[in-house]
Design brief:
The chain is mostly beta strands. It has a single domain, classed as Porin (Beta Barrel). It contains three helices and 16 strands. Strands 1-2-3-4-5-6-7-8-9-10-11-12-13-14-15-16 form a 16-stranded antiparallel beta barrel. The longest helix is centred in the first third of the chain and has 15 residues, at about 1-15. The chain is globular.
């Protein structure tokens, strides 16, 4: 792995060598998004019957600062800083620099992995979703996830150029325990290497499109892997994904360092776009070792104007827990997303 890091560093250094200092200084632009949601849920298990959830309102806001410059040889160098609008932990969501050129793209900083970026899942347009979405914000439900990445880490990522629609990526982070408010730029982590990789194919043909992905991640705590596919034809998109997490990946660890159970998840869905509106229906399932859950989300998205979208979800879930109270319920969520 150290040889790979040295080679990557040398590649970037050669790209910069001999350049005149004629490019413009980077100026950051401001962007981001704001989501404000209102909704309710009703649950029948775990002592929640008739009570629902008290959180009738949810929000998510990020302010993004981005900028780049192009060197005399055509290589682009840029930076991204994403500021959380509300958080009790790390105020910075992601921050990294990137270098784009004929060799592909190199990213260095706190960012998602290549596996996370390249993973394809079933189409869904609503604010809740069934796969790594917000259902657990509205109900006491296990979060289905077919792309179970390590999240934002200080890491190095490389993406190849696209060759006939094919692209590959690989990420390396040096510590699986530095993913929190106090964990960056210190020496208190475990030192476990995290290697994430992905391969994707994106193609547009006469009247239809195809997206394929194969992703995975390995660390000192085990591994996960998965695949996804989306097919578009006319105004329809259909697709799905599958993810498998090994029993030693580090979730719910026992005293012996493993959780003793494999995790298997999948989702399938269809969406239909018509002018400013889009609708979707998505189903998800996961066997999480101590139980299983299935969920359905019906989503609606309507573009009201440039950067303004009204979105709604109607969702239902049924969770069975081994040796514990089962839970099932439904909910309705609606609200506005602003992109700026």
């Amino acid at each position: 792995m150290k040889k790979i890091l040295v080679a990557s560093t040398a590649l970037v250094a050669v790209a910069f060598a001999g350049q005149a200092n004629a490019s413009e200084k980077i100026k950051l632009s401001v962007g981001g998004y704001m989501e404000q949601w209102a909704g309710f849920s009703d649950e029948d298990g775990a002592g929640l019957e008739g009570e629902g959830r008290p959180n009738a309102f949810q929000s998510d806001t990020e302010i993004h600062f981005k900028g780049s410059t192009t060197l005399d040889n055509g290589i682009e160098v840029g930076a991204t800083v994403e500021l959380e609008g509300e958080t009790s932990g790390d105020q910075i969501d992601e921050q990294y620099l990137y270098v784009n050129g004929g060799f592909g793209q190199v990213k260095l900083g706190k960012d998602d992995s290549a596996a996370d970026d390249m993973g394809i899942t079933a189409p869904a347009v609503g604010p809740v979703g069934v796969n790594d979405g917000d259902m657990s914000n509205w109900a006491d439900a296990y979060l289905i996830d077919t792309v179970r990445s390590s999240g934002d880490q200080n890491r190095l990522t490389y993406y190849t150029p696209s060759f006939g629609g094919f692209r590959a990526g690989v990420s390396y982070a040096d510590d699986s325990n530095r993913n929190g408010a106090d964990g960056y730029d210190n020496q208190s982590g475990s030192g476990d290497n995290i290697v994430s990789a992905g391969v994707e194919y994106l193609g547009d043909f006469d009247g239809w499109s195809l997206g394929l992905s194969a992703t995975g991640e390995e660390s000192g705590e085990g591994a996960w892997y998965g695949a996804g596919v989306n097919v578009g034809f006319g105004n329809f998109t259909v697709g799905g994904s599958y993810g498998h997490t090994e029993d030693d990946y580090g979730l719910n660890l026992e005293d012996d360092g493993s959780n003793g159970q494999d995790l298997d998840a999948f989702d399938v869905g269809v969406s239909y776009a018509m002018d400013a509106a889009a609708v979707s229906a998505t189903y998800g399932y996961e066997d999480f070792g101590t139980g299983e859950i299935q969920a359905v989300d019906l989503g609606l998205a309507y573009t009201l104007g440039a950067g303004v979208a009204w979105k709604s979800s109607v969702f239902w879930f049924d969770q069975e827990n081994d040796g514990e109270a089962d839970n099932d319920g439904y909910g309705v969520v609606t609200g506005i997303r602003l992109d700026f």
